[in-house]
Amino acid sequence: MTQNQGSPARELTGRELATAIRTDAAERAAALAARGRPARLAVVTATDDEASAWYVRSIVNAAGKVGIECEVADLGPGAEVGEIRDRLEALSADEWVSGIILQTPLPRDAKLEDLASSIVPAKDVDGANPLSLGRLASGLPAFAPATAEAVVRLLDHHGIPLSGRHAVVVGRSTVVGKPAAHLLLDRDATVTVCHSRTADLPAVTSAADVLVAAVGRIGLITPDHVRPGAVVVDVGTNQTEDGTLAGDVDPAVATRASALTPVPGGVGPVTTALLLAHTVQAAESLA
Largest CB tally within 10 Å, which of 107, 141, 169, 231? Predict the structure, then answer.
């Protein structure tokens, strides 16, 4: 990877890739509908978080545009753990439901990993069930968490080589960090995972050819964290005080990296498109 000699980083946008994924999903969804087995996505929520509500609305809107029926089961922020689990189990047993998403955040006493185990892997289109994550780590067929998959798909789309490269993932969540690390390993990258206990974070990240930031802290990654010429993927979608979105990467990194994903418009659109594609894939398998 060439060094950046002070010119702005190439912008790795996700909109073109997202459009291609949605177009393919729409064609396959239409074929399913013609056979009397329409793709159907169920989103379970138990929160009054406005950012979460906005995201769910965007999923419903996107699903409708590609011909996927979308049902939102809004259980409210006061939902009991047992109530959420019962709904997930009922949807898992419903032969007309193709895919299921359990939206976060959840009520205080509810844990995603515990509840997600109630989603059958065949319908776990966002890879939240620990069984899905275990299969992913073992190299077995499973739906990967859409955001983690979006990282690799976006790099592929822009022709960024991964085999033999050193990739550093900042963040170890089961939603992005860990599955992204497994997907990068599957592409023959050498992977380092950093977290809140990593000593001298800049020393580790500045050795990366490909740096993935997935922590949820505005501007955590500064130019000091980036080797000149590195490719940087910003997974952060942090809401600012004025209601706009900001990533985990300081914009000044664009003068040091060779390529950088924007926020918004980078990983986000690809993530939503992949959720739709996974739902269609699940429907095809269940038809």
Answer: 169
Number of helices followed by number of strands (H, E) in the chain: 9, 11
Q: Which two tokens stand for residue 35?
A: 């056979």
What are the pLDDT digits (tens) for 12-50? Answer: 999 999 999 999 999 999 999 999 999 999 999 999 988
Average pLDDT of every residue of the chain: 95
Cα-Cα-Cα-Cα dihedral of 250, 252, 258, 262, to 10°?
A: 50
Provide the CA 169 distance to its chain's centre, in angstroms.
14
CA distance 88 to 119: 6
Return the H-helix or E-strand segment holding 193. Answer: strand 190-194
| CA 180 centroid distance within chain | 9
Is the full-model pTM beyond 0.90?
yes
Expressed in angstroms, the distance from the first to the final Cα of the chain is 45
Residue 247 near residue 237, CB atoms below 8 Å:
yes
Please identify which residue in the block is written with the tokens 């979105």.
245
